[in-house]
Amino acid sequence: MNCINNLLDLYEIKLHYIKKYLLFILLLNLINCNLFNKNKNLDHNLQPNKINNIISSLDSNQKQALISFKNLVNNKQYSKDLEQASKSYLEDLKKNNQDLNLQNKLNQELNCDYDDSKIEKLFAQLGNDKMKKFLQQLHLMLKSINDGTLISFSSSNFRDTTTLSQKKERALEYIKRQLYIEFYFHSNDISDTEFFFQRTIKLLETQS
C-alpha cells in the first residue's frame, strides 16, 4: 500500500512539473509572438515612403514639376477627355482590325482613381534618368507658359486668342489634358512605359 502511495506521490510531483514546464513554454511563445509583432510593426513604420524617396533625389525644379504632375493626375477634371480619347483609340483599332486584346481593355471603363503607387510604378519603370528628364521638361514647359515665352504662342493655333493670358490658359489646358490621358493610358496598361516617355517628351519639347 505504501508503495502505491509513493507512486501516486511521484506521479503528482511529475504532473506538477510538467504543468509548470508547459506553462513556461506557453509564456515564452507569447513573449516571442509579441516581440515579433512589435518588430513587424516597427519595420513597417520605418519603411520609407517611395514618393519621399523620389523627391529626395530631385532638384528644386524637378520637385516643383513632380508636385504639379501629381496634383494634375490626382484631379478628375480631365476624366471626360480620357474617356473620349479611349473611345477614339478604340474606334481606330476596330476600323483597322488591330489588337483585339487592347480593344477589350478599351471597351472597359478606364480607372482614373489616383494613388501614389501609380506614379511610383511609372517612375520605377522609367528609371532615374528618364524620370528626371521628364520632370525637367515639364518644369521648362510650365515655366515658358508662365513667362509667356512659349514658342507655339506665335503659331496659328493661337491666332484667335487676343491676349497673352488667353494663350497661357489654352496652352496649359492642352498640356495638362494630354499628360492626364497619357498617364492613365499607362496606368491602365493601354500603353507601355517607353511609349509614355516618348509621347510626353515630344509633347513637352515641342511646346517649350
Output the keywords.
single chain, 208 residues, mainly alpha, 77% helix, plasmid
Can you offer a commentary on this structure?
Keywords: Plasmid. The chain has 208 residues and is mainly alpha-helical. The chain is built from 9 helices and no strands. Helix 4 crosses helix 8 (164-187). Mean pLDDT is 82; it is low at 35-47.
- In whole angstroms, the N-to-C terminal distance is 106 Å
The percentage helix is over 70%
Relative strand content: under 5%
Low-confidence stretches: 35-47
- List the helices and strands in order: HHHHHHHHH
Structural class: mainly alpha
Mean pLDDT: 82
Keywords: Plasmid
Mind sketching the topology for me?
Blueprint: H1 2-46, H2 50-56, H3 60-73, H4 79-95, H5 100-107, H6 116-126, H7 128-147, H8 164-187, H9 193-207
